Amino acid sequence: MNFKEMVMKKILLIFLCVYSVSAAAFDIVKPDTEQELIRDSDIDNVSRNIGVYGGLINHENFNSSFITALYFSYPFDEDVFVEAEYGISVINDTEYRNIGLPLLSQEELSVQFYTILVGYNILPGEVYWSREKTLVSRFYLIAGVGAVSFDDADYVSIQFGAGIKMELDKNKSIRFEARNRMYDTDVLGTDKLTNNIEFHLGVDWGF
């Protein structure tokens, strides 16, 4: 056996040893279960959505109450979407009536919200739903204008906020959102800009 053949056999032997060790190491660190991941490619990012949400709103100068809304969302692309919503809540002046200063025509009144909003997705990411499932998520900013109606009066509102949306599957998602609904009222005798902070949780369906 000449020198060249000896070198080739040693190289081949070293290669086989390294390959065996690498394969064994891979088997050791390979997980028993693979995590299920819903990827962006699995989601129709530009689908229209209809949804509902519920949460709490603090009516400045009055009370905090439950708010519910129905909304329709239409995306222009993967980043920008426009949304229309109709919501209802309840407002009361019980504390003022207790001291003899009623501010509303009735102690408790329905409040209606009509809003057009524009949203922008800024931080795509992932949320670990469970050990086996990871959801695509999007953090977004949202702002818009609308009207607030109660006690036979309408007020122009400006809104802004932020939220996070998580895709459950190709057609369903959930989202958590925080907003400030701002509008001028004169129920206290003078015009005042009110800040009405709201938190809600919603679910929507794509079509």
Brief synopsis:
15% of the residues lie in helices and 58% in strands.
Any overview of this molecule?
- With 207 residues, the chain is mainly beta.
- It folds into two domains: 1-30; 36-206, Porin (Beta Barrel), CATH 2.40.160.
- The chain is built from two helices and nine strands, in the order αββββαβββββ.
- It has an eight-stranded antiparallel beta barrel.
- The protein is elongated.
- Mean pLDDT is 82; it is low at 21-45.
Summarize the biggest pleated sheet: 8 strands, antiparallel, barrel
SS strand fraction: over 45%
The overall pLDDT average reads 82
SS elements, strand count: 9
Q: Which spans of ≥5 residues are poorly predicted at pLDDT below 50?
A: 21-45
Which word captures the global form? elongated
Strand order of the largest sheet: 2-3-4-5-6-7-8-9
The rounded distance between the terminal residues' Cα atoms is: 74 Å
Cα-atom Rg, whole angstroms? 29 Å
Oligomer: single chain
Number of helices: 2
- Number of structural domains: 2
